[in-house]
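DM from R.C. (forwarded with permission)

"hey, sorry to bug you on a friday — could you get me a structure for this? deadline for the figure draft is monday and I only need the backbone to look sensible"
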Amino acid sequence: MSSTQALFSASLISPDVAGSLPDGFTIRSLERSDYTKGFFECLQVLTWIGDVSEADFIERYDEMAEAKGTYYFAVIEYDGRIVGTGALVVEKKFIHQRGKCGHIEEISIAKEHQGKGLGLKMIKALDSVAVNLGCYKNILNCGPRNEPFYVKCGYDNSGIEMSHYFESGRDEYHRG
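My reply, with the result:
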């Protein structure tokens, strides 16, 4: 596989969203070569990562690429570095006329770039990918402190998140 292979086609991201980023910022699909561009440093703003080698990254990337039609991981790049991340995971359902539901995951913006509207742009980009794939809705889970941000992005509180963890003895930061 090529080291710059994109996880999904750029045509799935709305040109309006892509064109609305501040000067110097681009939004695109995650690429197989993004390990060295600060991808994990950006994700660490969100949560604990663990010790992930470049080989581990490539192995997971390849698994996502092989699961056609499921994983749409986007990044925002600035000056050759990943400064924003977000993922759309598409669930194929039997209900809603065998519809597709998008799950928004891993929204993270590097601390030095927060407050520039990049999180909102990432959500809008992932929403556009979902629409272009035929999803009937996107859903996400968040904590109470992040709810106002997602409301600003057009999301409504539509229920309660429930979890059943299979890891034991981890504090909130280290739990998935």
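R.C.: lifesaver. The longest helix spans residues 118-133.
me: no worries. DSSP finds six helices and five strands in the chain.
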